[in-house]
């Protein structure tokens, strides 16, 4: 999904790079980033997606990323680390009785000014002035191959924390990559009123000549 101001605002991204939360080893970064670039180029614009900060929880993916990202790119170990103690924040948010309560809890929790950066082995600023934010939040709660618990699933604290970070470190362009089963209200709710005009964009593997990776799906 392309966020507010969509492609036109991507002009603002020139020279200031991009953040990627829940990178999936950079899979979402490359998929969604490619969509942004294509959309920008179609309008004669250039969008700078030079990576400034990546967040990735999986340790194997973290090690892979350390070999792939530029030396000056920060690597946040866990998006819920914006709250300081990531496991405690997850537990606090998820133990709320429903999605609305979890959203309120995640919005109200104080956040840190410096994240635990694996790239530089020291605290690095949460707010880095990036021009865009690309998110690949987990799809297990929505995918037909997942648990289909939707907004009541165990991954909602991740989406809520992504939105909280996006509010604290706002960007002119945000892009969320997920399954088409994700409720379209989720990015709006999590990112808040600063981010408007969310536009869905659906793409299948065949659209990019990768149909050979398609899994059987049962609607
Ligand atoms: Zn850093």
Query: Care to count the β-strands?
Result: 7
Give the helices and strands as they follow along the chain: HEHEHEHHEEEHEH
Ligands and ions found: zinc ion
| Sequence stretches where pLDDT stays below 50 over 5 or more residues | none
- Residue share in β-strands: 5-15%
Query: Tally the helices: what do you get?
Result: 7
Question: Would you summarize the structure shown here?
Answer:
Helices cover 32% and strands 13% of the residues. The chain has 219 residues and is an alpha/beta fold.
Q: How does this model look, in words?
A:
- By secondary structure, this protein is α/β, with parallel strands linked by helices.
- 32% of the residues lie in helices and 13% in strands.
- It has one domain (6-201).
- It has seven helices and seven strands; from the N terminus they run αβαβαβααβββαβα.
- Zinc ion binds next to loops.
Pick out its properties:
219 residues, alpha/beta, 7 helices, binds zinc ion
Topology:
Blueprint: H1 6-9, E1 18-21, H2 27-42, E2 51-55, H3 59-68, E3 74-76, H4 86-94, H5 99-108, E4 114-117, E5 122-125, E6 132-135, H6 156-168, E7 173-176, H7 185-191
Parallel strand pairs: 1-2, 1-6, 2-3, 6-7
Antiparallel strand pairs: 4-5
Helix pairs in contact: 4-5, 5-6, 6-7
Residues 74, 117, 119-120, 124 line the site of zinc ion.
């Amino acid at each position: 999904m392309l966020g507010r101001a969509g492609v036109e605002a991507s002009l603002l991204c020139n020279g200031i790079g991009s953040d990627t939360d829940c990178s999936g080893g950079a899979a979402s970064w490359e998929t969604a980033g490619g969509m942004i670039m294509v959309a920008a180029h179609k309008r004669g614009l250039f969008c700078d997606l030079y990576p400034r900060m990546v967040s990735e929880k999986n340790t194997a993916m973290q090690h892979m990323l350390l070999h792939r990202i530029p030396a000056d790119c920060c690597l946040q170990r866990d998006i819920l680390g914006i709250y300081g103690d990531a496991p405690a924040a997850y537990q606090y948010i998820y133990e709320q009785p429903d999605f609305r309560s979890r959203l309120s809890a995640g919005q109200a929790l104080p956040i840190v000014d410096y994240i635990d950066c694996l790239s530089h082995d020291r605290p690095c600023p949460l707010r880095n002035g990036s021009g865009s934010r690309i998110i690949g939040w987990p799809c297990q709660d929505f995918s037909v191959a997942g648990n289909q618990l939707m907004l009541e699933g165990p991954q909602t604290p991740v989406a809520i924390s992504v939105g909280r970070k996006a509010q604290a470190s706002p960007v002119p362009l945000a892009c969320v990559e997920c399954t088409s089963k994700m409720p379209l209200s989720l990015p709006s709710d999590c990112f808040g009123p600063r981010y408007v005009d969310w536009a869905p964009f659906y793409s299948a593997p065949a659209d990019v000549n990768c149909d050979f990776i398609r899994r059987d799906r049962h609607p």
